[in-house]
Each structure stands twice: as C-alpha cells, then as structure tokens.
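re the bet — no i am not wrong, look at it urself. input seq straight from the record:
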Amino acid sequence: MTNKYAVFDLEIIKDVTGVADWWSVAPLGVSCCAVALSDSDNAIVWSGYPELGVAGLRAVVGALVDLINYGYTLVGFNSLGFDLRLLALESDESALCKALAHNHIDMFFHLFCQLGYAPGLDALCAGMGTPRKVKGMDGAKAPELWAKGERQAVIDYCVQDVRSTLALLLAAEEKGGVQWTSKSGKTVTCDFEKWLTVA
C-alpha cells in the first residue's frame, strides 16, 4: 500500500434533537473520538466522561498531528464542515486544526466540489458494497445514549463509522470512483483518479 490513511470521527454530547443548525446550540461537547489506520486492524479511541474537555481534545489534536508526522494522511467524512471545525472551537487549538483541515481529505467535501452535492456515508457504503454504518443509529442519537450511560454503544458506533469510511475510501481508490443508488432508485457514479485534499 503506497498511502497510509488515518480516518477520524467524533461524537457530541449535547442533545440536538429537533435542532436544524447544531452550531446555534454550541458548545456541543465531545464524548469520544476514534481513528482507524489503513495499516492496522485496531482503532485508536479517546473518550471522557461526561466529556473529553479541553485537555482531552488537545491530546486528540496532538495525536492527529503526530500521525501526519508519521506519514499518514488524515481523512474524514464531512470533517471539514463539522468534526475539525468542532475540534478547533472546543480544543483551543484553532491554528493546528486549520492546518489539519487544509491538508486532509474530506470525502464528503471532495464529492460536493465535484458534483455540487454529496450523498451520505451509508448510501455510498451500500453502493460500493463496503461495511455500512451501525443500523438505526446516527450522530444525533449518540448524545441520548451517552447520557443514559450507554457509553460503549456510542464508542462502538464511532469506531464503526471510521472503519466504514476507511473501507469506502480504499474501495473508491481501487475502483477509481464511487457509486450509489439515489432516492429515486437510479444508480449514480462519480469517477476520479484519486481523493483530493481540501487544499
């Protein structure tokens, strides 16, 4: 494998049920973060109760910087618009997070720039035949489970998201693009030579 990837995701603690603009109720708090590496079967996980807090999030930022220094390319799905934006706001490491955002691959952003819109992660995984997200679960439900003490379920969901994203990334790289089924039932394809960084 020529490229080494580190796929990143995080989950929030604030209940955003019925909230259209999550940023309007910030700070959102972070319960856990996970990273899946393309050359390892084990995910890296950070979690804190009731939340990671500034010190924990700074540790996450430091670890992401270290991974890049070890030769990994940071990857996410809607990470430019959400995960790294939130990390910048809540870690007090804005400059580092901006550098991470500029140089990482956001698969959602890549597709949005190419198509003018982007399908969801689960639709892409289904279309590519790669492992999908946890059924019946999404990021908006994670805070409720976390508050109920079902922390391992939230961590497992976060880990599955990074593994699903990594599998999709590699499959698309091998096939030279992605395909998925639209809501109207049509098969849609998007071809590209490689995933591009935000820059």
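see?? The chain is about 45% helix and 20% strand. told u. also The longest helix spans residues 151-175. so pay up
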